[in-house]
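2 proteins. here.
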Amino acid sequence: METLQIAVDAQGVARLTMNRPEVFNAFNEAMIAELGTAFDQLAADPAVRLIVLAGAGKAFSAGADIQWMKRASEATQDWNLQDARGFAEMLARIANCPKPTIARVQGLALGGGFGLVAACDIALATEDAKFAVSEARFGILPAVIGPYVINAVGPRQARRLALTASRIGAAEALGMGLLHEVVPAAELDAAVQRWVDELLMNGPQAQGEIKRLFAQLALGPVTPEVRELTAQTISRVRMSDEAREGFGAFLAKRPAAWVPVAKQDLSQ
């Protein structure tokens, strides 16, 4: 791929790195298409357990490439609609990936870069990272990323971020729920590894089931339909081979089959 680097280690950890550091990993049509393809490929690869999304250089992602936005402003409505649909599909592939996803954030996460962070399951950042839903500064709006921003930080904070387009620091992003951990820059990779280790201890099929089920559960009353959905799901999953292995391993006081050999001492 032209805009991405992908590496998968022996434990099934895929590290997907946006590789346009000269423009702070701003994305254009090519990067959007390659991100969507990469997540499809990694989601379908049985050897991949989880995905770490990162940015090369000083920034995670500065959002939309200004040359891409200039082309969009001069194109037809039909071109813009197809282009926006491609962006929306890419974010959906990240959000709906059946495997856990971690955003590794340093420097800037602006506009669409903010959306990438919000679409991942877990997000870690350096103490000096800056975030903004910056579209209004350019006379547009955060339409495609909007649902993911709202899901990550709630409607009122999302509205404030979009209306002001102001930058916030990592500590504030942590407080509003966009991030799960903030660390000094020198400790970012170690922090990512801690989360990777935790995720690898758990059943991969169970993690996929969690993501599928939770995507169907909205905040609000637990209706009879919701109760039935949850009951149907757990009754099916309890009969799976992975569940039998998980309970058998617990009773036998041994690591489950999916725990990497290098991590098996952590499960005791």
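next one coming up
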Amino acid sequence: MSSKQISNGKVIDKSRVAKAFSSAAGQYDQLAEAQKRIAGRLLSHCPQADSVLDIGCGTGYWTRKLRDHCQASQVYGLDLAPGMLSYAQQQPGSQGIDWLCADAEALPLEPASLDLIFSSLAIQWCNDYHRLFSGIYNSLKSGGQAFICTLLPGTLDELKQSWATVDDAEHVNNFVGLESLAEAIQSQGLEISQSESYTETLYYPDLRGVIDSIKGIGAHHVQGENHLTGRKAIIKLKQAYEGFRVEQGLPVSYQVLELQLKRPE
């Protein structure tokens, strides 16, 4: 089963995803507050490892952190977006990292060459999870581990509910559930050592802050058609979102899944 079957039949257009993230490269690290919290928590679970890969490395911020945290001597940063990789290569401390422009569903690594794979908020852009986890299995050494976090259904629910009062179009991506992910993982021979889900919520003063936090990091590509919206629709959206306001501001919630996988010895 692929996410093509479990995402209401809609396939993610990888070229559009790459373009969206490439255009966001210069401002990504300043705007990706939720992503930093989530990736930092994931990294804290990673052990020392010699050969590591960061899938969906983006600006390389976490690739460099991963290298230092794991004390790795061989480091790969892989991303679909050439603009992100170009930016990553120019950042201080990026020397010695092998940057790969490739699809996570077609990992270009030698079989059994990695001790550890790290991936924070990237695999939700995949279409075929069997191919993804097959590649992860093949790239890991015997006993190697993968530390992955992705998004679950319910992510950006405030935005989804608010848009539902405006029109019937799809403005928020549908995310794959744990059951489908677990099936794809185990079918490729990987073991799930640990699985944990939690909610990460950030707050913004207004709707503009909400939209910018999503759009500014390139994560605004939605499967299927994107519908143009007029001023009246935005006013209605703003009114609906105000219904979620709390003392801290307007909430943006991410339903996060952390996975620790292992290739059996």
